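Structure first, sequence second, as always.
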């Protein structure tokens, strides 16, 4: 047997061992097991039925306001404006903080495509930043050094000397619910006078130091899509401590209609981005259970962490020291030498009943973003070859939690 064959054989055994761990952690669950399924064990049915019974199913109703107030309280922010989805929320947030046609907005190369799409929806240009291994989010030190090299300040504003465009904002994304190192990123934003937006789509309930994510951005955006930790079917929210921005967000997302009992008067080009009451009803029911959900998710993550501690070829991604993560999607990081077996792992996992996914393709590799400005993205590119998500639904944590 050649060394090469021996190596392939041992690689194959390593992959099977990685999946054996899933067999142990997820024993007793029905197969196939999805990556992240919604879970409705509370008052979801009751509240949705109330919408149907009262016929308040659309963009006005008591659940919308309640959801906004309760979510703001939960996050510890002044205001929340509920919207149709996270992408629309990001689009609005960027517009409201003053991102204009032709501006550049710093976004991580490793994120869901919606982060960069929202920038493009403003006719602005995503400018891709690299990630750091310890958080999977933007590397503040690398960003700071990079900006020092390419930027010029004109008055208060930061410009990209390579493209001549204004650099207006940074979107921090909390990957899989793990907070980026926000304090360090805030320093970078202050140094270059950039506005911070948090794409907290994945991090509902996650804490950075002592506060929930969503507290640092001038505006922060959550998603309540069906695969997120808390779901409203489809939905999102803009969170902010700026009252004026919140009032404007509410106005612009409701077609910019001037309040009046019967007249249709609109004072600017608005959007139809309000969350319908029926979705907010689901959200209210889910929010009542969020702390339980987080406990279950952390219980599952702890079990994975323990079981993968001594598994060859792979490590379980752990929350950064300064954070308490919601562990939205659990992630494995393959050792460099096994990264070429990533797709084998995913395919064999699938055969054995486990839905697994690779990390997103870094966005600068997608056709519509190939020509966008970017820094060195070596960590992003390396991560994309070796990070794999494993089943993470809230209810999978149940058995361990109760045991
Ligand atoms: C889910 C998600 C979004 C978009 O949310 P939608 O509600 O699906 O529009 C944006 N950014 C990130 C990082 C996400 O994971």
């Amino acid at each position: 047997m050649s060394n090469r064959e021996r190596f392939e054989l041992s690689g194959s055994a390593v992959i099977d061992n990685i999946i054996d761990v899933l067999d142990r952690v997820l024993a007793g669950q029905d197969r196939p097991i999805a990556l992240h399924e919604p879970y409705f064990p509370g008052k979801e049915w009751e509240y949705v039925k109330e919408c149907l019974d009262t016929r308040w199913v659309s963009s006005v109703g008591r659940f919308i306001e309640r959801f906004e107030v309760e979510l703001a309280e939960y996050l510890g922010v002044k205001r929340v404006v509920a919207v149709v989805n996270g992408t629309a929320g990001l689009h609005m947030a960027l517009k409201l903080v003053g991102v204009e046609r032709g501006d550049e907005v710093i976004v991580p190369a490793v994120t869901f495509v919606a982060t960069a799409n929202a920038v493009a929806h403003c006719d602005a240009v995503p400018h891709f930043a690299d990630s750091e291994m310890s958080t999977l989010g933007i590397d503040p030190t690398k960003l700071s050094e990079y900006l020092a090299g390419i930027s010029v300040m004109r008055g208060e504003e930061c410009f990209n000397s390579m493209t001549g465009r204004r650099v207006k904002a940074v979107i921090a994304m909390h990957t899989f619910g793990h907070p980026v190192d926000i304090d360090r990123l805030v320093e970078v934003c202050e140094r270059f006078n950039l506005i911070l937006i948090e794409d907290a789509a994945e991090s509902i309930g996650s804490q950075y130091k002592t506060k929930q994510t969503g507290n640092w951005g001038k505006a922060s955006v959550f998603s309540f899509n069906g695969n997120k930790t808390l779901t409203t079917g489809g939905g999102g929210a803009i969170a902010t401590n700026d009252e004026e921005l919140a009032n404007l967000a509410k106005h612009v997302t409701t077609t910019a209609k001037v309040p009046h009992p019967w007249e249709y008067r609109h004072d600017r080009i608005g959007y139809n981005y309000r969350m319908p009451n029926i979705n907010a009803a689901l959200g209210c029911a889910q929010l009542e259970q969020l702390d339980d959900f987080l406990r279950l998710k952390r219980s599952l993550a702890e079990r994975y962490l323990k079981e993968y501690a001594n598994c060859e070829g792979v490590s379980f991604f752990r929350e950064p020291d300064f954070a308490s993560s919601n562990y939205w999607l659990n992630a494995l990081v393959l050792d460099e030498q096994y990264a070429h077996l990533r797709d084998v792992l995913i395919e064999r996992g699938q055969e054995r009943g486990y839905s697994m996914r690779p990390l997103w393709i870094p966005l600068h590799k997608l056709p519509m973003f190939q020509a966008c400005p970017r820094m060195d993205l070596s960590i992003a590119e390396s991560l994309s070859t070796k990070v794999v998500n494993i089943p993470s639904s809230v209810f999978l944590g149940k058995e361990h939690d109760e045991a």
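Margin note: The first strand starts at residue 79 and ends at 83.
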